[in-house]
């Protein structure tokens, strides 16, 4: 039978009252042999004790607790409630009744102290016993033999949740670096050694998986533990992050695969949420390229600030359908979400959309971004990245959009390829459209994002899954990397900071060698380089060995926000820029490639 929380609270109050009455009976039975106080004393003491206890308990939410999860804190609250009730009742009795038995008061208090908290502890032990019986009832041979890394607070929470719920896991032991925890027990599970002992313990106890239960583990910590596990054939994963638990993606007792993102050490970005909320809350926001990796994440981050309307503009119907469905499930009741299928190259359609919705803020993420592919299709790159950007930017200006932020790339710096060159020209268009009193135009430039479509990580993951080899175009190649959520948050923050005409540069941290990234992913997958070799295939058309965020003359003068700088980029006249673009489109592809790269480098 399922009872409401109110019904359960009433039952608990009734049971506690019965315990107090029973304690009074026991105390009366023991006191009668020594002293006979006035009968009124009993009635006053019992009545006052129950009333004061119930009143104090209600005020402190004592009866709304879930009893099966009773903790020491809950027991302490019950003890305090009883102590206060008996102290008040005893004091009143002593003031108004001539014959008072202090022994009776003490015994009644002692019996109540034993029965009420004791009943809560007994109920919790009963539930834990039932869970234990369920666990014992399952066949251990069918379970995953697991070694936990970490006997601290994270390990305590994780193991506690695992042992309460029958499942497929059999926790064999724990390892921890703290010498004081060696040979101790946590939930009857032994601490068998330190991280250095993992290979030997895996072999001795036939461990199937090693789970890291250290929420504070740094990338260096993770790499060290992974290195120990790599010596033996064992799966490695970790407890879920607090963020995943809070979002409902995973429960505390579920496992999360270690991703290469965990090993790159990117600190979480702290946003100026109050300022962003002023710009986005209750406003109309349009995101172009809303179905892409960056565009969809910008939509997720914007939705957290509850705009009145969020317009998801994209060319691919399936990707727009997916982000629309996701956001409706999360925010459908508080935000009007509008999916719009449109091509930014269709100038008339884009102007019509802007006129219809009149957004306050536009984030322009739509672009062709695949470097080698754009080398084969330079005309399409220009049409989408240059003309498409011009269309949506001019349409935004025509309806007085307050702020327009274009998402650019580090490949726009000293470009050697068509894609980077078209993005640099798009930057020139956006900054040229800025003028006082009108729409504030700005661009945000950053490097590669981990896990985006077309990035190396999905490619490496697929190659590893198929047994290798993993291919790297050049072992000397380095790139800047940032997570998709981090990049999207900084784009939103930069939009708030924009005064018009800026090119914001995101701090990408230290560059990463692509071959090192491949090695880490191979280790994470439980393989060695002997099993999954890495091959050097040669640089593809348009690729560079390294990327830059600023050219020499664009060095940022100051940091305007954590991880956000402003580059000193010159502004160019829009008509001159477009005159070149129109002239180059009439030429063959090989000439287009050559001239557009030259033009972009001459206009840094």
Structure characterization notes:
By secondary structure, the chain is α/β, with parallel strands linked by helices. It has a nine-stranded mixed β-sheet, sandwiched between helices. It has a seven-stranded mixed β-sheet with strand order 3-4-2-1-5-6-7. The protein has a two-stranded parallel ribbon with strand order 14-17. The N and C termini lie far apart (72 Å). The model is unreliable at 133-137 and 242-253 (pLDDT under 50).
What is this structure's SSE topology?
Elements: H1 5-31, H2 39-59, H3 72-96, H4 102-136, E1 144-149, H5 153-164, E2 169-175, E3 185-186, E4 189-193, H6 198-205, E5 209-212, H7 219-230, E6 235-238, H8 242-247, E7 256-257, H9 273-280, E8 284-288, H10 293-303, E9 309-314, H11 317-331, E10 336-341, H12 347-357, E11 361-364, H13 371-376, H14 378-398, E12 403-407, H15 418-432, E13 440-445, E14 448-450, H16 456-465, E15 470-472, E16 478-479, E17 481-483, H17 484-497, E18 502-506, E19 512-513, H18 514-524, E20 534-536, E21 559-561, E22 564-567, H19 574-584, H20 589-602
Parallel strand pairs: 1-2, 1-5, 2-4, 5-6, 8-9, 8-11, 9-10, 11-12, 12-13, 13-18, 14-17, 15-20
Antiparallel strand pairs: 3-4, 6-7, 16-19, 18-22, 21-22
Distance between the ends? 72 Å
Helix content range = 40-55%
Mean pLDDT: 81
- Major sheet description: 9 strands, mixed
Class from helix and strand fractions: alpha/beta
Radius of gyration equals 33 Å
Which percent band covers the strand fraction?
A: 5-15%
Low-confidence stretches: 133-137, 242-253
Shape: elongated
Number of strands: 22
Strand order of the largest sheet: 10-9-8-11-12-13-18-22-21
Tell me the number of helical segments per DSSP (H or I, 4 or more residues long): 20
